[in-house]
Amino acid sequence: MLASRPAHSMANPPSFYARVFALAFAGALAWALWRVLQPFLPSLLWALLLAFLLFPVNRWLRERWRGRRGAAALALTFAVIVGVVVPAGLLATAFVRQGSDLLSRLTRFADQYKIVRPSDVLRIPMVERMLEQVQDRVPVTTEQVQAWLVQSLRSVVALLVASGRSIFVGALGWVVACLLTLFLLYFFFRDGDGFAARMAGLVPLEESHKRRLIAHLAAVVRAVVLGSLVTALVQGGLLGVAFAVSGLDSPVVFGVLAAACSLIPIGGTALVWIPAALLLVAQGRWGWAVFLVLWGALVVGTADNVLRPLLISGRAKISTLPVFLGVLGGLAAFGMIGMFLGPVLIALALELMRFAEEGPLPSPAENGSAAGTPVL
Fold first, then answer.
1. To the nearest 10°, the Cα dihedral for 56, 59, 60, 66?
2. What angle do CA 203, 51, 326 make, to 5 degrees?
C-alpha cells in the first residue's frame, strides 16, 4: 500500500499547507520588522516625505552631474540642513526662550494677584474692566462671560503645561531624531526611487490603476504640504509680526500657535488674534486693537484665501472634510508627521473604494473586440 503512493507526494507539500505557511511566515516577519523599525518610524517617515517632495530637484541634479547619485544626494542633504533644519532649530530656540519667559511672567502675575483657581482671574482689575465693557456692548450676562473665560483658561493652562513638558523633556530626543532623519534622507535621495519602483511592482493592481493611484497620492501629499503647511507658516509669520509691532509679548509663541490654529477650519487664526485684541482693549490701547483686528481679518485671512487655492491649483481633487479629519486624526495618532500621513491614508482609502466601484478593467482583447479594431 505504501509503495503505491506517488514518490513526489512527500517531497512537495500540499498547496494549502504552503499558503498557510507563507502567510504565517509573512505575518511573523512583518511583526518582527515592525518591532525593529518602530523606534525609528518618525524619522523614516520624515525622511521619506522630504525625499519625495525634493525628488524633482534630486533628478535635476543627477542629470546635471551625469548620474552621480552620491554627489547629488550629499548636496541635497546639505541643502536641507541649511534651508530647513537650521531655521527650524532657530525657531524652536526662540519659541522655548519666549515660552519660558511667558510662563515665568504668568507665574509672577499669579503670585501677585493670589490666583489659585481659574475663577480667581476674574478678580484682576483689568479683567473686571473688560467684563464691564463687554457687558455694556454685548447682550450677554456676566456669568456667561465668566464661565467662558474660566473654561478657556483651563484649556490654555493644560495646553501650556503639556507643551512645556514635551518641549523640555524631548529636546534631546528631537536632536537625535533630526540627525537620524538626515542620515536616512541621504540614502533615500541616493537609492529611494529604485526601492520605490520595486515596492510598486509588488502592488497587486492593474498597471493603469497603479499609475493613477501613485499619481493621486503624490498630488495629495504635495497639496497638503503646500496648501496647508506653507499657508500655515505664512499666516503664523504674519500674525507674529503683528504681535511684535503692537507690543504684545512672545510674538514667536503666538505666531506658532496661530500657525497651528490655521489648520482648524472653524475659527482659524482668529482664535489667537481676537483674544489678543480684547487684551489690547482692556489695556486701553484701542488703536492697536483696531490694527490687530484689521490685520488679522484682512491680511492674515486674505493670505489663506489666496495662497491655499494658488498652491494646490491643479493638484489633488480632495474635499476639505477628509483633509481636516486626516490632519487632526493623524496628529493625534502619529504626531507632527501625522499631519501629512493622515490625509494620505484617507485619500488612499477613498481611491481604493473608487477602484472597487469601477470594478476590474477590461482586458486588451475585450477592448479590441468591443471597438472592432485589431489588438496589437
1. 180
2. 65
The DSSP code for 226 is: I
Query: What does pTM read for this prediction?
Result: 0.66
What average pLDDT does range 251-258 have in this prediction?
Answer: 85
Residue 153 has a pLDDT of 55
Structural domain boundaries in the chain: 40-190, 206-359
Q: Find the farthest-apart pair of alpha carbons in the chain and give their distance in angstroms, rounded.
A: 105
Contact 68, 62 (CB under 8 A): yes
Alpha helix (H) residue ranges in the chain? 15-37, 41-53, 55-64, 69-80, 86-112, 125-137, 142-169, 171-201, 207-224, 231-245, 251-261, 270-282, 286-294, 301-312, 320-334, 338-358, 364-371
Residue 332 has pLDDT above 80, yes or no: no
Q: Measuring CA to CA, which residue among 37, 39, 40, 49 is closest to residue 342?
A: 49
Q: How far apart are CA 133 and CA 140, in angstroms?
A: 11
Residues near 111 by beta carbon (within 8 Å), at least 6 away in sequence: none
Please give the average per-residue pLDDT across 323-339, as a whole number.
76
Predicted confidence (pLDDT) at residue 264 exceeds the cutoff of 80? no
